[in-house]
UniProtKB/TrEMBL annotation:
SUPFAM superfamilies: SGNH hydrolase. This is SGNH hydrolase-type esterase domain-containing protein. The lineage of its organism: Bacteria, Pseudomonadati, Pseudomonadota, Alphaproteobacteria, Hyphomicrobiales. One of its GO terms (molecular function) is phosphatidylcholine lysophospholipase activity. Residues 3-170 form the SGNH hydrolase-type esterase domain.
Length: 237
């Protein structure tokens, strides 16, 4: 089983490792899980790395990308950084996201016999009804991009994994903080806490005041197990 995505798939630092969670479940012993998550990747970058996924001849593929695509639209700071770091040839847009994710799905369908699951996007921030401009734009962009994922899954005859719906329902039932601005320093600080100081990501989440995230973007174990449950249903379907 190949898992293609960004830092939320890589599961390092403050991001919950949902692949490790699935790997330890008794019913999944027949699968070899391969992690193709790379921090900061947009759908464009995931498409460039697709040959690595194809080379392992997977029986199932989970694709979870789009959060960074959304952040580049909402935060000019993120857009400038990712354009340089990830060598983006175009300005990110919903159309470009659709183009890249659809091409990932088409190539997987054409070049493998794998069952393919496309994941919609979890919330960024925990305030679904916030009137803060930054959080409000994040909310509707996440919804917009999740609709694109659902449309591609339908168009390309792939499975659809409803992370947006499942986590959105959980956050709406227990709303928390708004994500009101993107600053890189807190993310580096939290990575230092986890990787160097060996603090548990859930302790970092509590210290930061998040209910479902460690930092507003990456998921803690509470939300990460919801992700694992959604993907488990796809595995067993």
């Amino acid at each position: 089983m190949a898992c293609l995505g960004s830092s939320s798939t890589a599961g390092k630092g403050q991001a919950f490792d949902w692949i490790a969670e699935l790997r330890q479940r008794p019913g999944n012993g027949q699968f070899e899980f391969r992690n193709f998550g790379v921090g900061g990747d947009l759908a464009y970058n995931a498409l460039q790395r697709l040959p690595d996924v194809l080379a392992c001849r997977p029986g199932k593929v989970i694709v979870w990308v789009g959060g960074n695509d959304v952040l580049t639209l909402v935060s000019r700071k993120v857009w400038r950084f990712f354009t340089f770091w990830k060598r983006l040839p175009r300005t990110p847009s919903p159309d470009w996201f659709h183009e890249n994710l659809a091409e990932i799905a088409r190539r997987l369908k054409r070049e493998t016999a794998a069952d393919i699951g496309l994941c919609s996007l979890p919330p960024i921030g925990e305030a679904p009804d916030s009137d803060d401009p930054f959080q409000s734009e994040l909310n509707w962009r996440i919804k917009e991009y999740s609709a694109i994922v659902a449309a591609i899954a339908h168009e390309e005859y792939c499975g659809y994994i409803p992370l947006h719906e499942a986590l959105g329902e959980a956050v709406r039932a227990s709303p928390g903080r708004a994500f009101t601005a993107f600053n890189f320093l807190p993310f580096y600080r939290d990575a230092f806490r986890v990787l160097v100081l060996r603090q548990h990501p859930d302790d970092v989440a509590r210290r930061n005041g998040w209910l479902f995230h460690t930092d507003g973007v990456h998921l803690n174990s509470r939300a990460g197990r919801i992700v694992a449950d959604c993907i488990q249903k796809f595995i067993e379907a």
